[in-house]
Design goal:
Elements: H1 2-16, E1 73-78, E2 92-98, E3 103-108, E4 114-120, E5 123-128, E6 136-141, E7 146-149, E8 155-159, E9 165-171, E10 179-180, H2 181-186, H3 194-201, H4 205-214
Antiparallel strand pairs: 1-2, 2-9, 3-8, 3-10, 4-7, 4-9, 5-6, 5-8
Subcellular location: Secreted, Extracellular space, Apoplast
Protein name: Germin-like protein
Keywords: Apoplast, Disulfide bond, Glycoprotein, Manganese, Metal-binding, Secreted, Signal
């Protein structure tokens, strides 16, 4: 009996240390080697002797993004693609710019949670819990406020000011990914068959055709 308890105790401890997102680094750093042809979960490491300060830095977050688009927002990403030194560190950053009443449309990050801080303006934010509850949790944020979006859940932001708004968000992955719901459903390549979307969204076939033409 004692040995069984000990076994299950070690088993429980092993689960505690299972990473919830990106795998942890086994050395000081693993700067991504963009020239490597090796396929791994993440990116291959550059020889540490060839690493320099620029591998760990990025410039440009002070610059506003172009929000002249249909939804009125822009994202400047700082992931492992921009900072090779983020490889294996499990973090990334984005700047989000919003035109007046612009939105960051409903989307998910399949590989990371997000913590967002309002730098300028006022944002209505929210996320939807998983089914069957599908509960909307929403709040209006002011400058300096912080909000968390759990990994994988559909979420959004809307600027509720008549002037531009800015937010900075950190994510718990070097490459959190993004799936924008409308684009994925109505703009996939190849297209999702229209009859599937008709049944799934309870829409007329002509409406589905129109939405697919928009995306």
């Amino acid at each position: 009996m004692a040995s069984s308890i000990l076994f299950f105790g070690f088993l429980a401890l092993s689960f505690i240390h299972v990473p919830a997102s990106d795998p942890g680094s086994l050395q000081d750093f693993c700067v991504a080697d963009e020239t490597s042809n090796v396929i791994v979960n993440g990116l291959a490491c550059k020889d540490p002797k060839r690493v320099h300060a620029d591998d760990f830095s990025f410039s440009g977050l002070h610059l506003a993004g172009n929000t002249s688009n249909a939804v009125g927002f822009s994202v400047t990403t700082v992931t492992v693609a921009q900072i090779p030194g983020l490889n294996t560190l499990g973090i990334s950053l984005v700047r989000i710019d919003y035109a007046p009443w612009g939105i960051n449309p409903p989307h998910t990050h399949p590989r990371g949670s997000e913590i967002l801080t309002v730098i300028e303006g006022s944002l209505e934010v929210g996320f939807v819990t998983s089914g069957p509850e599908n509960r909307l949790i929403t709040k209006v944020l002011q400058k300096g406020d912080v909000f968390v979006f759990p990994i994988g859940l559909i979420h959004f932001q809307r600027n509720v000011w008549n002037s531009n708004a800015v937010a900075i968000a950190a994510l718990s992955s070097q490459n959190p990914g993004v799936v924008t719901i409308a684009n994925a459903m109505f703009g996939s390549t190849p297209e999702i068959p229209g009859d599937i979307l008709v049944k799934a969204f309870q829409l007329d076939k002509n409406v589905v055709n129109y939405l697919q033409s928009k995306f």
